[in-house]
Amino acid sequence: MYQQIINDLKKYSDSEKARILSRFFKTGKGEYGEGDIFLGVTVPQQRLVAKKFKDADLKTIEELLHSKIHEHRLTALLIIIYQIKKANEVKKKNFFNFYLKNTNYINNWDLVDLSCRDIIGEYLLDKDRKILYQLACSKNLWERRIAIISTFAFIRKSKLQDTLRVSKILLNDKHDLIHKAVGWALRELGKKDEKALENFLNKYYKKIPRTMLRYAIEKFSEEKRKKYLTKS
User: Fold this and answer.
1) Does the 1-107 domain belong in CATH 1.25.10.90?
2) Fold of the 120-231 domain
3) Which end of the chain is more exposed for a tag (fewer CB within 10 A), N or C?
4) By C-alpha distance, which of 69, 83, 17, 4 is closest to 44?
5) Contact residues for 124 (Cβ-Cβ < 8 A; gap 6+)
6) Is residue 178 a contact partner of residue 139, using CB atoms and an 8 Å limit?
7) 216, 190 in Cβ contact below 8 A?
8) What 3-state DSSP class applies to 145?
9) Which among 98, 73, 6, 82 is positioned nearest to 50, based on CA atoms?
10) Span(s) in the chain for CATH 1.25.10.90
11) C-alpha distances in Å from residue 119, one per residue of 21, 26, 31, 36
12) Which InterPro entries match (predicted)?
């Protein structure tokens, strides 16, 4: 099945799109996606392939995830998400552990953003969440992003405290991709409870990076946005 998936993805490959994606996902020397290889396959096309092979076994998924090719890795994660929707608790736990064991291969922001909410966040809804705080303190950029993006599963259920706590840990993060992710999470939290977001901003506005703040206040009124941008 592994080779069939590879062949199907190859049919969609587009060299011009691959060139654009390589630049967009910063694959140059010293950039965050250094060395990543793209085929030029769109996410909708990858979803089609993942759905077609949604019953792939874990060995096949692991082979895909360990590939040097970006679209192979994302397709592996999309297959897991298809399987999780109908999985029992044991299988969900197995995928949860598999994901955490393989974070070195979940190494760009789209791979994180399209997978961790469903694989990590959803699993932790009724469980201890200390793993998120460990990830938030990781030296690995992508593990820190997993920590905050996974909390989107909680935000959907109006469980907001973990998002605020993880955001606090990440306030001093140096990477722009974390600033954007935390700001995005805070913005979504604000849709559920604007007062909770304002309380957080009022307490930490001196520490909040500008990019993070801009994302967080995006849904505020113009007057309120100006107030926070002036304060910071």
Assistant:
1) yes
2) Leucine-rich Repeat Variant (1.25.10)
3) N
4) 17
5) 131, 132, 150, 153, 154
6) no
7) yes
8) helix
9) 82
10) 1-107, 120-231
11) 25, 25, 27, 23
12) ARM-type_fold, DNA_alkylation
Task: Write the CB contacts of 58 (distance below 8 Å, at least 6 apart in sequence).
Answer: 94, 98
Tokens 């606090």 correspond to what residue? Answer: 168
Residues 174 and 139: their CA atoms lie apart, in Å, by 11
The encoded tokens of residue 119 equal 């694989």
- pLDDT score of 7: 96
Angle at the Cα of 47 from the Cα atoms of 89 and 107, rounded to 5 degrees: 75
Q: What is the pLDDT of residues 163-207, one digit of tens each?
A: 999 999 999 999 999 999 999 999 999 999 999 999 999 999 888
Q: How far from each other are the two terminal CA atoms of the chain, in whole angstroms?
A: 54
CA distance 44 to 54: 15
Amino acid identity of residue 141, one-letter, is L
**Per-residue confidence at 232, pLDDT binned at 50, 70, 90?**
low
